[in-house]
Amino acid sequence: MRFVDTLKNIWTIEELRKRLLVTLLLVLVYRLGCYVVLPGISPADIDVLANFTNKSGLMQLLDMFSGGAFSQASIFALGIMPYITASIVIQLCGMILPSFQKMQREGESGRQKLNQYTRYLTVLILCLQAPAYLINLQVQVNSAANGHVMSLGFWTVVYLTIIMAAGAMFILWLGERITDRGIGNGISFIILVGIIARLPGALFFEFTSRLPGTTGSQGGLVMFIVEVVLLFAVTVGAVLLVQGTRKVPVQYAKRIVGNRQYGGARQYIPLKVNAAGVMPIIFAQAIMFIPMTLAGFRGGDSGFMQAFTDINSFWYNFTFFILIVAFTYFYTAITVRPTQMAEDMKRNNGFIPGVKPGKKTAEYLDAIMSRITLPGSIFLGIVAILPAFARFFGISQNFAQFFGGTSLLIMVGVVLDTLQQVEAHLKMHHYDGLMKEGKIKGRTTGSAY
C-alpha cells in the first residue's frame, strides 16, 4: 500500500509529473532512433554485424552501452560514448594542465568553456570513430562469404560519417534536455536506458536456455533461480560500494558576534570508500583494449595475444583486477586532496577532535583515505571481473555482463541519483519519501558516469 501511495503522491505533484513525462518521451525518441538504420545498409549486413558482435566480448560491451544500436548499424550506433571519452580527456587535462585548472576555478564561465571544449573534442572523436566503424562493418560483411560484397566509397564514408556524428550529437542534445526538463542526469540516464534495454532479452534467453529439454541445458529452472538471487546479491553489494562512507567528525569553534553565537556544532566529512567511482574500470578497460588493437593488426595467433584478447581468460582478468586497484589509488589521490581539506577546515575555524589543525589534520585524513581505499579498490576490482566468473559457471555472455563491471555500477549509481531527486521533490511538497526510514543517498560526485 505504501508503494501505491508513493506513486499517487508522485503523480499529484504537477512539476514532478511533467518532468517524468518529458523524460519518458525523450527516452522513447532515443529508443526509436536506435532502430533507424544507416542509408545503404541491407538486412544481410545487419545480420553479419550482429553475429560478429555476439562473438566478440568487446563489441558486446560497446553494443550494450549503445542500447543495441551498434549491432543494428543505426544512426545512433556510436551512442554517447564519444562524449564520455571526451569528458574523461578534459578531466585529465584539468588535473595536469594549469590553463584547464584555471578554468575550473572560474566558476560558471569556466564550466561553460570546458563544456564547449568537450563538445569540440567529441566531434573530433566522432570523425575518427565513425569511419572506423564503417570500415569494420565492410570487413565483416566481405569476410562472411554470404555472396554479398559491400563496397563503401570515399564519399559514401564521408556522408555516413556526417550522419553518425549528427546522431551522436542529437543523443547529447536529448541528454541535456532530460537534465533541464526531466528527472536525473540526462547523459547518465541515456546510458542507463541503453544498458537496461538489453536486460529483458538477456534474461529471457537465459530462462529459455535453462528449460528442460533445451540443448546444453544445465541445472534447469533451479539454476536460473539461483542466478537471479546471485544477481540481486551482487546488486546489493554494488549499492553498498557506491554509498559506503567513512564519517570523520569535525568540530567548529564557537564565535560570539553581537548577541548571536556562531559555530560550536559538530559536523561530519563523508569520505567515500569508492571515491573514484567507475573511472578506474574505464581507465583499465582503455589499457586492456591495447592488446586487442594490436591483435587486430598483427593477428592473434600467439599465446600472449590469445590470453589478452579473451575477456574470460585468467590472465586478462588478473591484469584487469590489478590495473583497477592501481587506478583506484591513482584517481583517488588526484581527486581527494587532504591538504586542501585541512586548509579549508582551518580557515573556517574547524578541527577534528584530538587532531591538531594544519599538517597533522592532512596526515590524519590521508591515513584514513589510504585505509578505506584498499578494501574499496579490491571490492571494485572483484565487481569488475564478476562477469568472467559468471561465464565460468555457465551463464550466457549477454546475461553475465549484468553481474558486474561498469554496467552494474552505472545502473546502481544512476538509479540512486534519480530516486534521490524524486525523493527531494516529495519532501519539498511535504510528502513522505520513497523510504520509510532514512533517505536515499546518491553519488556525491557530479560525474555523469
Q: Could you estimate the helical fraction of the residues in percent?
A: 55-70%
Strand content: 5-15%
Number of domains: 2
User: So what's the CATH class of the largest domain?
Assistant: Mainly Alpha
Low-confidence parts, pLDDT < 50 over ≥5 residues?
444-448
As laid out across the biggest beta sheet, the strand order is: 4-1-5
How would you describe this protein?
This protein has helices spanning 2-12, 14-33, 43-55, 57-65, 81-96, 98-104, 108-143, 154-181, 186-196, 199-209, 220-243, 279-298, 303-309, 314-335, 338-347, 359-392, 397-400, 405-428; strands at 245-252, 255-257, 260-262, 266-272, 350-351. With 449 residues, the protein is mainly α. It has a three-stranded antiparallel sheet. It is globular.
